[in-house]
Specification:
The structure is a single chain. With about 475 residues, this protein is of the alpha+beta class. It has two domains: about 160 residues, no CATH class; about 300 residues, Aminopeptidase (3-Layer(aba) Sandwich). The protein is about 30% helix and about 20% strand. The strands form five sheets. It has a six-stranded mixed sheet with strand order 9-10-13-11-14-17, with helices on both faces. The protein has a four-stranded antiparallel sheet with strand order 2-3-1-4. A four-stranded antiparallel sheet has the order 6-7-5-8. Helix 12 links the parallel strand 15 and strand 16. Helix 6 runs parallel beside helix 12 and helix 7 runs antiparallel to helix 14. The longest helix is centred in the C-terminal third of the chain and has 19 residues. Bound molecules: 2-acetamido-2-deoxy-beta-D-glucopyranose (2 copies) and zinc ion. Zinc ion binds next to loops. GO terms for molecular function: metal ion binding; metalloexopeptidase activity. Pfam families: Peptidase_M28 (PF04389). Its EC number is 3.4.-.-.
């Protein structure tokens, strides 16, 4: 009998606790959901490693070179798991079990630019209803992207790369700057006056353009495949450039809208970069071409814009380089940020700290404004810094942890950069309009104050980390 390749997935937390044995280091494929994925070539190594790890997942793989796709449900509040949703998940896995390609009814896929095609020929290799994850194989990468439009509402697909990726834990020295900040952080009245000036009117105006609630942009959808995402990208570039940044639209995959990468060059140190980000692409409901993404992630995007407007208003300069980045392809598996983080690593860029803002606006009507920090994926020191900054500059926020993971900061963390995420809730996702065509800004629970408070935290962390100067200050 020939040896069958296997996919081997273990909880990422287990990896962090144990550090991976060198015999596995060259067979690492990335983090998917909360699992670190390997295709080991050394069976002895697997046997030894499995003993120290809770609940490893072992998936026998087909012999060919099909594209593998990890699919995973996001951490959502039980209140969002309705009977209709459960039925959707059940239907989906029934399709996956059928041998023939099927064309689901129009009501059962997200309408994006391309004409709906039959579900690609695929096979389900693994499905764990408890971990709410699955692995499928499809013929090629294009089919993986098409598959993403058929996923049940709270599920996301991430293509597993065809070849191993470097396993790059964040090196100790990369966190030195953040550690120093942690030891010396105190209230700075100048920082407070800068971040307190973030304009909520501006945020209201910007989100209404991005969602087309004001009827001026004509953007029906910012799905990475939809035309509206290109309109949004061009508009974002112009907005950021108007604040003095140099921007580039950076394509990363054919068919996808580009990343919008904007830079302010440092005045003292042009070898280090502080990066803050959100994703401007969005996702809508089955059977609808509308994907306004007012919260996911229009809210993170307007936080970046609000910070940029404030930079312009005050004529702020930073000591190190600063980048404001709006990613695309997040909804198809963090594809835009993966490409950009890989590029930065290849260029030997020194990212001091990265903070991704993904979903900042919603909290349940009976809940206080909150800030959720990542329980699993991220650099603990960076998360701690953000938490301290929040206590100092946004005491209105109740700060806690969330299992809602896996946004673009993960791509940076995986390239060995110190990174974390800011999220709207100290708990799982509770927004009833999550991945829904009704995700506009004018609705109950969408709290601009909360966006402003979290934006202050993102901005104050940036100011403390990069260092800054105002034109009037000569001391
Ligand atoms: C999208 O853009 C393409 C190319 O610019 C155009 O041909 C097509 O009509 C547009 N589709 C929609 C729905 O606007
Ligand atoms: C990163 O820092 C190292 C050491 O200080 C420096 O040699 C290198 O040029 C920096 N990288 C960039 C892209 O500036
Ligand atoms: Zn998102």
């Amino acid at each position: 009998m020939t040896t069958t390749a296997v996919l081997f997935a273990v909880p990422y937390a287990g990896i962090v606790a144990q550090s991976i044995p060198s015999c596995l280091a060259d067979s690492f494929y990335g983090i998917f959901g909360q699992q670190a994925v390997f295709k080991p070539t050394n069976a002895v190594c697997v046997t030894r490693f499995v003993q120290g790890i809770d609940s490893p997942v072992i998936v026998p793989l087909p012999a060919g070179d099909e594209q593998l796709v990890w699919i995973q449900e996001s951490a959502v509040d039980n209140a969002l798991r309705t009977t209709a949703y459960d039925a959707q998940v059940k239907d989906f896995f029934q399709w996956l079990h059928t041998d023939d390609t099927v064309v689901p009814p129009a009501a059962d896929y997200q309408t994006v630019l391309f004409t709906p095609e039959p579900l690609p020929a695929l096979s389900l290799l693994y499905h764990n209803p408890t971990l709410r994850s699955a692995v499928v194989s499809v013929p090629d990468a294009g089919a993986a992207h098409a598959l993403s439009t058929f996923l049940p509402r709270y599920w996301k697909a991430s293509p597993i790369p065809p070849t191993p990726v470097a396993y790059l834990p964040v090196p100790e020295h990369a966190v030195d700057h953040v550690r120093k900040l942690l030891a010396s952080l105190h209230f700075n009245p100048v920082v407070a006056s800068i971040v307190n000036g973030i304009s909520m009117d501006r945020m209201r105006k910007d989100i209404r353009y991005l969602t087309n609630e004001d009827g001026t942009s004509g953007i029906e959808s910012r799905n990475s495949f939809a035309n509206g995402s290109r309109v949004a990208a061009a508009w974002l570039k112009a907005q950021f450039e108007d604040t003095g940044a140099s921007c580039e639209l950076k394509p990363f995959l054919v068919g996808f809208a580009p990343n919008v990468v904007c830079k302010y060059t440092g005045t003292l140190d042009t070898e280090s970069t502080v990066l803050i980000s959100g994703h401007y692409d969005s996702r809508g409901s089955f059977g609808s071409s509308r994907a306004p993404g007012g919260n996911d992630d229009g809210s993170g995007t307007i936080s970046l814009l609000a910070i940029a407007h404030r930079i312009k208003e005050l004529g702020l300069k930073f000591h190190t380089n600063v980048e404001l980045v709006a990613f695309a392809g997040e909804e198809q598996g963090l594809l835009g940020s993966k490409a950009y983080a890989r590029e930065l690593r290849a260029r030997d860029a020194n990212v001091t700290l990265m903070i991704q803002a993904d979903m900042l606006a919603y909290h349940a009507p009976n809940e206080p404004p909150q800030l959720g920090l990542p329980e699993y994926i991220g650099t603990p020191e960076v998360t701690e810094l953000v938490s301290k900054v929040a206590a100092i500059y946004s005491p209105e926020l109740t700060v806690g942890y969330t299992a809602a993971c896996c946004s673009d900061h993960q791509s940076f963390h995986q390239q060995g950069y110190p990174a974390t995420q800011v999220f709207e809730r100290a708990g799982p996702i509770a927004d009833p309009m999550y991945h829904n065509s009704g995700d506009v800004s004018d609705r109950p629970g969408y709290d601009f104050n909360q966006v402003r408070y979290v934006s202050r935290v993102q901005f104050a962390t940036l100011l403390h980390t990069a260092g800054f100067e105002l034109p009037e200050a000569d001391d």
